[in-house]
Design brief:
The chain is built from four helices and no strands. It is an all-alpha fold and about 130 residues long. It folds into two domains: about 35 residues, no CATH class; about 100 residues, Helix Hairpins (Orthogonal Bundle), CATH 1.10.287. The longest helix has about 35 residues. The protein is globular, with a radius of gyration of 20 Å.
């Protein structure tokens, strides 16, 4: 299938599109595998598992679960976008360039900001529960 907006595609080849929603889902799963090959993504995945275990162990409320799950999803999504930016920048600019560095650094900063926000959510949700245990 070709894209009517860009009939020639890249380098004169037709653009190939997924033929089904199921195929698109398969591509997304492949993307998850690519993401989980990244060391930082693995760290975030382990942190999410530990936070989930802590939530069950501390019996947090539904509202607290909502905040925790959204925070975890935000961090992992930011890491996925950071990985995508890094891959595309490496493809577009294999040689060092200040703009390539800046693009990667800004994407990494997004992950950092999301992680700090998730940390604040963690303190607000788990802090009082942990203090009660002491």
């Amino acid at each position: 299938m070709t894209d009517p907006k860009c009939p020639d595609g890249a380098a004169g080849r037709p653009i190939q599109r997924s033929v089904s929603r199921l195929a698109s889902f398969g591509h997304a799963l492949r993307g998850l595998r690519v993401l989980l090959r990244q060391p930082n993504a693995r760290i975030h995945a382990v942190a999410a598992l530990l936070v989930t275990a802590a939530g069950w162990g501390l019996n947090i409320t539904t509202g607290q679960w909502l905040a925790v799950v959204l925070a975890m999803a935000l961090v992992v999504s930011a890491e996925a976008l950071n990985t995508a930016v890094e891959l595309v920048v490496d493809l577009a600019s294999p040689e060092w360039h200040a703009l390539a560095r800046d693009a990667k650094d800004v994407a990494a900063a997004a992950v950092l900001l999301c992680s700090v926000g998730a940390g604040v959510v963690g303190v607000l949700v788990f802090g009082p529960a942990l203090l009660r245990l002491l």
